[in-house]
């Protein structure tokens, strides 16, 4: 029998958003199985409770698995989650920004942000920045953000009114733009944390068969999704690059990179632009109120 103290992540604390299903659930389960204290974040209390039970069973009775139920499309909930974390924990070793949606019909949140932009980009930006004190308190912390190869067709719209216009909305561009933002955010975060003990990387998990789509996703998108399903990989395989970046010793020396298949991968020209990254940071700070 393996003792808790001999597990590679014993004594470390990890937070995983979107952890109630798919890649997030597998990621949280494996972190717990390797000894980490894991905080699961999800919107649905029932799904979160089921995920907690699954992870607890897989990781054993000694595992520490906590649940936080927040809809992270709302920035006030992001702030509340960060506040709870700072009240309850003294450090955070691993932050996995995994939560994401494939947008359906055009939707504005109560706070006035297009839903996929708010969920896929503004939430990771605000949560990571609000948790920096806990990350900085760790001996060596890692921020891992799940992006997508879809970023290749993304473009950052600097004008919020244009981004929030139903007439200009497209589910494909909304998703691709948010995934491009994940990479630009990671690169700028890494640059700003260059002299700290915190690394930041992002990844494409592959085309994974998960519950990414919303119920109101267009019929065209659903048809494309079902057509592509035979080519998709499982959540188990899709989580491997996330887990590599969160745990591998060699990944501790890398920051500001985009990965696929556990290797540094080529990203788009826009995703490589330091000017674009800096501009996005300014836009994000203005829209979230978090610098």
Automatic annotation (TrEMBL):
Query: MF terms per GO, please?
Result: oxidoreductase activity
Keywords, comma-separated and alphabetical: Oxidoreductase
**Residue ranges of coiled coil:** none
Name the InterPro entries for this protein.
NAD(P)-bd_dom_sf, SDR_fam
The record, for Pfam families, names: adh_short
Origin, by domain of life?
Bacteria
Tell me the leader sequence span: none
Q: Which family does it belong to?
A: Belongs to the short-chain dehydrogenases/reductases (SDR) family.
Name of the protein: SDR family oxidoreductase
Please tell me the species this chain comes from.
Hymenobacter rubripertinctus
């Amino acid at each position: 029998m393996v003792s808790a103290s001999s597990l590679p992540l014993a004594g470390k604390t990890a937070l995983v958003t979107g952890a109630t299903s798919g890649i997030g659930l597998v990621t949280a389960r494996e972190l717990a199985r390797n000894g980490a204290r894991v905080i699961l974040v999800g919107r649905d209390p029932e799904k979160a409770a089921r995920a907690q039970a699954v992870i607890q069973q897989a990781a054993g009775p000694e595992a520490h698995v906590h649940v936080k139920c927040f809809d992270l499309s709302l920035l006030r909930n992001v702030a509340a989650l960060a506040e709870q974390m700072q009240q309850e924990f003294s450090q955070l070793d691993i932050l996995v920004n995994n939560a994401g949606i494939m947008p359906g019909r055009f939707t504005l949140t109560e706070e006035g942000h297009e839903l996929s932009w708010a969920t896929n980009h503004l939430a990771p930006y605000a949560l990571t920045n609000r948790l920096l004190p806990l990350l900085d308190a760790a001996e060596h912390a890692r921020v891992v953000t799940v992006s997508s190869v879809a970023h290749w067709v993304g473009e950052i719209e600097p004008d919020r009114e244009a981004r929030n216009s139903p007439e200009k909305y497209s589910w494909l561009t909304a998703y691709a733009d948010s995934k491009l933002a994940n990479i630009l955010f990671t690169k700028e975060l890494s640059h700003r944390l260059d002299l700290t003990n915190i690394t930041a990387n992002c990844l494409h998990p592959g085309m994974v068969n998960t519950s990414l789509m919303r119920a109101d996703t267009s019929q065209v998108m659903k048809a494309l999704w079902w057509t592509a399903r035979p080519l998709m990989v499982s959540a188990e395989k899709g989580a491997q690059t996330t887990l590599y970046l969160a745990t591998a010793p060699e990944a501790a020396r890398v920051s500001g990179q985009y990965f696929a298949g556990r290797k540094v991968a080529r990203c788009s020209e826009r995703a490589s632009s330091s000017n674009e990254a800096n501009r996005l940071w300014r836009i994000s700070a203005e829209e979230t109120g978090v610098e």
